[in-house]
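Before we proceed, please read the two lines closing this message. Tell me what the token row says about the fold.
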Amino acid sequence: MTQGTTKGVPIDTDGTLAANQDTLVASQKATKTYADTKIASTYLDTDGTLAANSDTKIASQKATKTYVDTEVAAIAWTYVKLASDFTTTANTQQSVTDFNFTPAADTQYEVEGKFLCQTSVTTVGARPGLTWPTGYDDGAARLFFPNNVSASSQRWLPAGTAGSANSSGATVADATYLGLFDATFIMGASPSGNFQITLHSETSGQTVRMMTGSYIRYRVIP
């Protein structure tokens, strides 16, 4: 038995752990040496997919970490944040710069978002919206301003429909209005284009703005 102390704790560095005592603590190296001699390498599974799905193999630390990290990443949210304010005076949908993502083929998505919109005058509504990529199989979306209850401030959209909801009912110029949306859709074998956020003004020539702090997030549904 080889023995030392760390902060008064007796440390056993013997890789055979022959002392077999409750009053000693095995060093990391001794523990590894002992385990390596007791567990044959054929029992260790280093495959990060754990494809063997075996009751007679032990997954290595690295394989376990790789498998868990992959599974967590597959269901984690990916965020797309609006980096700077986007303004328009157009009365037709304008693609908000760098506010989109490209879906993969044969994949089902859950998407959510928050819009911070601002209007220049009290009589003009901002209309955030979205357009779908082509090549979808099915889906639907909802856009709405929770502080407005009028039909014009809420939209249910079947897949493939380019739609928007407005902030009509605003009574304060330059006030910021919260818009929300959620969507679920399934892409087919050959999708084309982006899931794109848009903005336009209810009244041509009047400025509306989508502000920094707006975001969309999406994740794959297994």
